[in-house]
Design brief:
Elements: H1 5-26, H2 49-60
């Protein structure tokens, strides 16, 4: 991860967006359907690089990566 000063602001914005998404999910009714986010980042979760990478693929690159 690139944490030079010029790129650090982008990581701060990403973290804020992840936190807003987690807060929105906390107030939503959860189901058990296939559309549930099984690997969503929750507010109390520890920071895990693989979760941030998956989040970037899904939300910034507009799609998830799957092994074929």
């Amino acid at each position: 991860m690139d944490l030079r000063p010029a790129n650090c602001a982008l990581w701060v914005e990403r973290a804020k967006l992840v936190a807003r998404q987690a807060a929105a999910r906390a107030g939503a009714v959860h189901g058990t359907g296939s559309d549930e986010e099984w690997f969503a980042i929750e507010p109390a979760d520890a920071i895990a690089p693989w979760r941030m990478a998956a989040w970037i693929f899904k939300y910034e690159d507009q799609g998830e990566r799957i092994k074929r």
